[in-house]
Amino acid sequence: MHALYAGLMSGTSLDGVDAVLVEASPDGRLRAHHHQPLPVRLHDELLALNARDGIDELARAAAAARDLADVYADSLAAVLAAAGVPATQVRAVGAHGQTVRHRPEQGYTIQLLDAARLAERSGVDVVANLRSRDVAAGGQGAPLVPAFHAARFARPGEDTAVLNLGGIANLTLLAADGGVLGFDTGPANALLDHWAQQHLGQAYDAHGAWAAGGRVDPGLLASLRDEAFFRARPPKSTGRDLFEPGWLQARLAAHPGITPQDVMATLLALTVSTVADALLSQAPHTTRLRVCGGGARNDALMAALARALPGMEVRDTHADGVAPEHVEAWAFAWLAQAFVERRPGNLPAVTGAIGPRILGALYPA
Q1: Are 276 and 305 in contact (CB under 8 A)?
Q2: Which domains does the chain have, with CATH numbers?
Q3: How far is CA 356 from the centre of its chain?
């Protein structure tokens, strides 16, 4: 019987926790998946902490880490129940935590999670703090999923790209010769969801329908694209530290009179254009693009990507046998397995670290 690993992921989109249970077989097999939305109070607190609201931050961060561990534990229990598997059969769970600061240029990245509490509640060995060792080795600590993407989606002799559309968009480039490159390209759902919440009163723009009815404003788009991060070469990573509502408002101030719907259309165009520019500049011979993350459900975004990348097969990861909402959590289950087997989990060519490193810290059950 193959060993079982679980993965728990809550990303920059803050839409909830994805839990997966997978078999560590040569081709991998998903046993179960569970998605659990974050409680509204915890969602708002994590967003406030990410926005550097400095009132009693230490105590609030500790409480949020505790509460997130409880949501993680509930999610893990639910996915094990769905698979009919007791906790004692799970070798380890890779738990990402919630990023509230990402400053690799200053030598740190912070993911909130009380991993000891998660181990105590779940009865499963927890592998957490998965980014800090790469940062300590001079890397960005992100993205970490390209190693999993290479194991799961690469095709020998064919240039393939995997695009994760979470709060931030990140690309993995899988070269025909086996080379792997990965980096963040800029904002995705973080700004799109913020704008939908502010103007629609909804968590997100379902299927991108509102954006599809708007018109892209060329002046605003040029202003949004005039950001040093987009011109930087990989390795590079980013987050809400940069692409947050204040960043958007500062640029909107120079373009008054644009309707909210047209702003939404322009934000979608920003994501599409920065992804397409990055892909075509770094891997112009790519023939397949596979999309995962919440943005894969945005029909307007997927259609715009296909238009921006003519001649490329643009499909979500269902085409390769993995549901888009499973990919990130599965990657952290894969990283937990790498830790247990004492294999490096980072790719220095992706993160910029000085060498391969075993990622994570163990919290025994």
Answers
A1: yes
A2: 4-143+326-363 (3.30.420.40), 156-320 (3.30.420.40)
A3: 21
Angle at 305 between CA 304 and CA 311, to 5 degrees: 115
The CA-atom distances, in angstroms, between 254 and each of 199, 225, 330 are 20, 14, 42
pTM for the full model?
0.93
Give the chain's count of helices (H) and strands (E): 14, 13
Residue 89 CB neighbours (<10 A): 13
Q: Is 97 helix (H, G, I), strand (E, B) or coil?
A: coil
Are 336 and 96 a contacting pair, CB within 8 Å?
no
pLDDT tens across 236-269, in order? 999 999 999 999 999 999 999 999 999 999 999 9
Element (H, E) at 288: strand 288-292
Token pair in block for residue 186? 């800029």
Instruction: Report yes or no: 257 and 217 within 8 Å, Cβ to Cβ.
Output: no
**pLDDT tens-digit series, residues 298-341:** 999 999 999 999 999 999 999 999 999 999 999 999 999 999 99
Tokens of 142: 């992100």
